[in-house]
Amino acid sequence: MSLIHKEISDFSVQSYQNNAFHTVTKKDILGKWSVFFFYPADFTFVCPTELEDLANKYAEFKAVGCEIYAVSCDTHFVHKAWHDTSDRIKKIEYPMLADPTHALAKDFEVYIKKDGLAERGSFIVNPEGRIVAYEVTAGNVGRNADELFRRVQASQFVAEHGDEVCPAKWQPGAETLKPSLDLVGQL
Predict the structure, then answer these.
(1) pLDDT at 178
(2) Which positions ≥6 away from 141 have C-beta within 8 Å?
(3) Is 47 a catalytic site residue?
(4) 179 vs 163: CA distance, rounded Å
(5) CB burial readout 136-160, b (16+ within 10 A) else e
(6) Cα–Cα distance, 4 to 124 (Å, whole number)
(7) pLDDT digit string (tens) for 52-72?
(8) Beta-carbon neighbour count of residue 85 at 10 Å?
(9) What is the dihedral of CA 38, 43, 46, 48, to 10 degrees?
(10) Does the pLDDT of residue 179 top 90, yes or no?
C-alpha cells in the first residue's frame, strides 16, 4: 500500500539539536517542507556517513525552506552522546528526533518489530503534513543527500506549478513537461 498523500499522525517527541533537548510535534512541521530521514541506530556504521552527507547539505535544504529531521528509535540522550563523541555527527545542526516508543517509525511504516529498529526510509513531507515522496532501502545501503535534495526541489516545483511535471534527472531551471494529448507517444 502506498504512503503517497498520507497525512502523518500527530506526534510529540524529544529531539537533540544545538546542544539542547527540544520537543518536536506535528504542529512544528506544518507550514514548511520537511524530510524525515529514518536510520537504524546511533553508533553504527552506514548511518554516520549518511547523516554527515545530510549535514554537509543542510544549508541548501534550509535555503529552499525544508527542515531535516533525522529519526532513530534511540533516545535523545543517546543522540547527545553520539554527537559528543563522533566527529561526523558533531557536524549535525538539524534536529535528531528520538523515537524510543516507535510511534514515528510505525506511522511511516518503517519499524522492524523483531529488531526494534527503523529501516532506512527517506520521506518528503509537504507543508500540509502529507507524504509526497519516499524511499526505503535495505539497511546495508546508504543514501545520497544530493538526490534527496533534488527530489525535494522537484516536489516543491510541481506543488507550485500543478500543470507541469519534472522528467528524469530534472534540476531547477531545466525544462519541464506539460502533460497533454500532444505528448502521448512523442517522448
Answers:
(1) 82
(2) 46, 120
(3) yes
(4) 7
(5) eeebeebbebeebbbbbbbbbbbee
(6) 10
(7) 999 999 999 999 999 999 999
(8) 11
(9) 80
(10) no
Written as nine digits, the cell of 91 is 557536524
Global pTM reads 0.94
Q: Report how far apart, in Å, the C-alpha atoms of 98 and of each of 41, 42, 59, 183 are.
A: 10, 11, 22, 47
Question: 67 near 54, Cβ under 8 Å?
Answer: no
- If one counts every other C-beta atom within 10 angstroms of the C-beta of residue 104, the result is 25
Mean of the per-residue pLDDT values for the chain?
95
**CA angle at residue 13 from 10 to 15, to 5 degrees?**
140
**Nearest to 169, CA basis, from 145, 157, 151, 187:** 151
User: What are the CA-CA distances from residue 135 to residues 4, 14, 118, 181, 185 (Å)?
Assistant: 11, 24, 13, 30, 29
pLDDT at 121 over 90: yes
At 74-113, the pLDDT tens digits run: 999 999 999 999 999 999 999 999 999 999 999 999 999 9
- Angle 46-63/145-160 helices, nearest 10 degrees? 30
Contact 111, 105 (CB under 8 A): yes
Exactly one of 47, 66, 73, 166 is catalytic; name it.
47
